[in-house]
Amino acid sequence: MENIKIVNKYLLNVYGKALDNSPRFRVVWSEDVFETRRGFFEDYTEAGIFLRRYQGVRRVKKYSYLVDRFVLEAYTPEQRSSPEIEDGDRYEPLFVFDKKGQFLTPETWACDYVIHRYLLAMGGEVQKRTDSMDAQAHEEEIDKEAQKFVAYMEEDDSNIMQRFRNQEAVIVPSGYKES
Q1: Whose CA is closest to 85, among 33, 42, 23?
Q2: Is the pTM of this model over 0.85?
Q3: End-to-end alpha carbon distance in the chain
Q4: All structural domains of the chain with their residue ranges
């Protein structure tokens, strides 16, 4: 859970607060979030036997359809106008940290990706690039180049490339001057 504190602090620092001082984005654990809803409810025994169906108000898990997952949420004050939610937290889900049924640990870069696209879709402001985002993009670019170079070396069967693979030769960039 320590990672979640770091992620939420990052989200607060980068994306700020709403007018009522609530974080604009947050990550929550699906089992910890409840809301009071108006609607039809069914009660069952522990053995799964149907007891009754009734209409009323009940405090329920917000994400009853999710089990043990982190959820990235966006602050949406208009949720208060929903007739079935009596006591909502004004947050709506943007992304569930799950990949084909497998648990995913929330990461700041993943949150940035989802939030950026959400803001674009909402026609709102888009986060300005930070030095860390540029550094990460640069690292990914270097990794792609390295993978391309490895693929090139594996495909080339020339004598010089075989000697390079066997560590019998080196590649010296053109324009290199020995000091």
Answers
A1: 33
A2: no
A3: 53
A4: 2-128, 132-165
Q: Which of 119, 106, 98 has its CA nearest to residue 28?
A: 106
Of 54, 26, 50, whose CA–CA distance to 41 is shortest? 54
Q: Give the residue from 6, 9, 3, 11 showing the smallest Cα distance to 72.
A: 11
Residue 39 near residue 64 (C-beta atoms within 8 A): no
pLDDT tens-digit readout, 79-96: 556 778 777 778 899 999
d(CA 87, CA 19): 19
Amino acid at 143: D
Tokens representing 161? 């490339």
Q: Is the distance from CB of 15 to CB of 118 less than 8 angstroms? A: no
By the 8 A CB rule, do 34 and 60 touch? Answer: yes
The residue with tokens 């560590």 is 167
All residues at 6 or more sequence positions from 74 whose CB lies less than 8 Å from its CB, including other chains:
24, 25, 91, 92, 94, 115, 118
- What gap in Å lies between CA 114 and CA 118, rounded to an integer? 6
